[in-house]
Amino acid sequence: MASKGLRSDSQGVAPGVRAPGAQSAQAAGGRQAKTAEDGRVLRGVGEGRPAQSDFAIASSDHEDPVDRLHFFVPAGWGLMTGCMACVLAVMAILSASLPSLLSAGLVAGSFAICAMAPRLSRFEQGLGPSGWQRYPLMLFAIALPMVLLGVACVRWTNRVDALDWQVTASGFVIIILLASALLEGRLTSMIAATMGLWGGAWIISGSLGSLILLSAGTVMGLYFAIRHARRAMTESERLSERLREQRRAEDLLNEYEQTGQGWFWETDRRGQLTYVSPRIAKLLRQPVEDLVGRPFNNLFQLEGHEGENERTLVFHISTRSSFRDLSVRAATGEGEERWWAISGRPVLDQFNNFMGFRGSGTDLTETRKSQQHVTQLARFDSLTKLANRFQMAEWLDKILNAPRIESRACAVFLLDLDRFKQVNDTMGHPAGDALLRQVADRLRTTVGRHGKVGRLGGDEFQVILPGHHLPEGLANLARRIIENLSQPYSIEGSRVIIGASVGISVCPENGTTSEEIIRNADLALYAAKGGGRGRHHFYDDDLHSDAKERQQLEQDLRDAIAENALELYYQPQVRTTTERIAGFEALLRWKHPRHGYMSPARFIPVAEETGLVSQIGEWALRTACRDLARWPEEVRVAVNVSPLQFANPALPAIVTSAIASAGIDPARLELEITESVFLGDDKSTEAMFASLKGIGVRLALDDFGTGYSSLGYLKKAPFDKIKIDQSFVRGATIKGSRNGAIISSIVSLAEALGMETTAEGVETLDELDLVRMLGCSHVQGYIYERPLSLEVANARIEEGLDAVAQGPRSARAPRQTMLRKVVLEHGEQVYHGTIRNISQSGAMIEGLWNVPVETPFDIHLARGYVMQAVSRWSHEDRMGVEFARPLELDGNGSVVFTPPKAPSETNPVSQLRKAG
């Protein structure tokens, strides 16, 4: 039986769960610990009194009611024999008659069954708390005797006229009341007894109406019995679980006390000890019996130690208030000090009468011994002797929590060293440590007395400047810091040059808590590093939005990888001599569930920063190989390999597995690798190239000329192809451009090394003619095809591999990117827009929604300078316009926003232009 024999107080808590340490005292001292003065057992804090959660409550024990659910036949049911005999005797006296022989036999049977109750009860317990046999047993032991009694009484009443039905009904009521008392609240058994008694009466003289009432009563009784059973089951489980929890808590407290991790104490209302852990008695070198009954304060040396905690202890004891972790010196009498941290709370009884204190304590001796030394180590950086992260945070909190609001202003700089990792990697960590010490000295000298300098860890530093500061002054200090830290260093006889990036946030403009200030400074630092490093950046609200957007983008990208939502598109690479498709470059595409197709330039950096690029790259490699297996043997596929993938020693195994799974010739797979891989270890790089070439795949050098400046790697790297970046193709046909000469040099270099060349980003016929004339072996760009989905690429291959160049003869006029407010007039309507980019012949304007094509406008480019234009296309809030006549250009090729007849008028907004 799950909960039979459980004891509980009025709140359902099992007794025997002592106050902390009570049983330990009995075990260690060989005697029962004293209770509170009124003799009642003290329970846990706040049980049954949620309104007084700061106090413990005193309560006496109560017997837990026997579980009424699991067993139906009580051992005391045998007493029903005597009860029924008394009722029958009264009926015989009142009627001056005796029951017939048959009725007497029925009564005797009823008595016999009830007399068997003790045995039947033990038999039921042997069946277990959930055996179905308990229900037939209940009908036999409870219902059947009542049925026999009911039949006998009704037969007796019908036979003897002197026996009134009122007497019989009253007897039935008395019998039912006595049965309910003997069944001790077992609702199911009580219903069975009641229905059995009245059912027996109905058998002899029942009517249809009485049958209906009896049936309705039975149904209602069963309904309430089932509800009662469910509640009883829930209560039984709750009590059992609570008992297990309290026993577990008691074991844990015993373990806590006996292992010396802590100790417990208890006092009466006069402040005298009623219990203390034996371990404390041993430390004080006194028997537990001598300590019990003494004042609690005698455990400590309060005289001569007028510290704040000692006075606080006396205060709490006298005012009967709770206290926690108060440091006090133990009255050990030893030369060496011993300190304890004690906690306690007052105990109230159910009438809110103060009963005393109860609490615990822990040893603080070793902690206090090393506290000063640890504090010193915890507040300064051991390498640079600057304040560490903890002390800087403490100092910032002190400023932000100043009593006067005007004293809470400050500025925070977060600094990150640029190219410091290269020093560690090339010269070793000792050289890196020496560099950090020199950086700390320069930073301390630069900031001087204006603020506090600290090292947060690694190559991260922090500067806190208290008080109000103008942005110009903060910018000047940031520039001086960057300039000073960027000067050459002498490390182990070598000349080392690094840089620094600075993020700045200001209180209260950028936040009023340390978390906000540091977070915003970190966002500003991230923006400074993203803007090219070696610069400073003030926090702006847009940075927080960008960070949240990036975080969301990272989560969406993880979901896309998990849901296989990424796609590969294939852009043809055409051989210039035959104008046939020689292969495809696999390009990653992602259709965002909310933003649609997203540029790889937006999500690939997120993948590289979060380490997802390796997972994406392996997926792309396997997918491209699988698609390639269905294409003609003469077609190759090129897959980009990120520097993180290239640095993975498992890359050759991954490539081999992808080729083997697809069943393709390794020579049909081309891996495109950027120049940035040569910034790492030369030996590991050479080993990786050798492993990849050993597999038999082709290697292509991607974005040649845009990254690593040295050409020395071409002597060793076994590339099969050099891809000319589209930045060299763009504008190569413009008169005076040097891009053509660069392309020609790259082609000559590749031919000398036995490599092919691919010109990327070819979009116009004149660009195609140029790269073909300069000797490029392959062309890739919109002039032949845009990137194709797998289905479209399959269909394109089925049509044949011949490629036809289609596109404009020449590129449109060079465009300048800008943000310039303009006014547009259409008839009598006036609109405001923003020019996003502009050329001699037209511009893209933002701010007007769904403008019809061929709509004429008068555009006010500057004061007194109005240009007529016509809309050529429109999409949402953007439109492209074509000017009625070309705009003037200055000597640098930039658009001039002044009327042709008034060149002296200069618009200062032109300083905002950024060359496209």
In short:
The protein has 27 helices and 29 strands. With 916 residues, the protein is an alpha+beta fold. The radius of gyration is 46 Å and the shape is extended.
Care to describe what's here?
The N terminus and C terminus are likely disordered. This protein is α+β, with helices and mostly antiparallel strands and 916 residues long. Helix 2 runs antiparallel to helix 3, helix 14 packs antiparallel against helix 15 and helix 18 packs across helix 19. It contains 27 helices and 29 strands. Helix 23 links the parallel strand 19 and strand 20. Helix content is 42%, strand content 21%. The strands form five sheets. It has an eight-stranded mixed β-barrel with strand order 15-16-18-19-20-21-22-23, surrounded by four helices. Strands 1, 2, 3, 4, 5, 6 and 7 form a seven-stranded mixed sheet that branches.
Number of helices: 27
Globally, the shape reads extended
Low-confidence stretches: 1-69, 305-310, 902-916
Distance between the ends? 85 Å
Strand content: 15-25%
Count of β-strands: 29
Percent of residues in helical segments?
40-55%
Biggest sheet strand line-up: 15-16-18-19-20-21-22-23
Give a short account of the largest sheet: 8 strands, mixed, barrel
Secondary-structure-based class equals: alpha+beta
Q: Evaluate the radius of gyration.
A: 46 Å
Mean pLDDT: 81
List the helices and strands and how they pair.
Elements (H helix, E strand, L loop, with lengths): L21 H8 L12 E4 L10 E3 L21 H16 L5 H15 L1 H11 L6 H26 L5 H18 L4 H19 L2 H51 L4 E5 L5 E4 L1 H6 L4 H4 L16 H12 L3 E7 L9 E11 L4 E10 L1 H15 L9 H12 L9 E9 L1 H8 L1 H19 L4 E6 L2 E7 L4 H15 L3 E3 L2 E3 L2 E9 L6 H17 L5 E3 L2 H22 L3 E10 L4 E13 L3 E3 L1 H11 L2 H16 L7 E6 L1 H4 L4 H12 L6 E6 L7 H14 L2 E7 L16 E4 L1 H4 L9 H14 L3 E5 L4 H9 L4 E3 L9 H10 L16 E11 L2 E10 L3 E5 L9 E7 L2 E11 L2 E6 L33
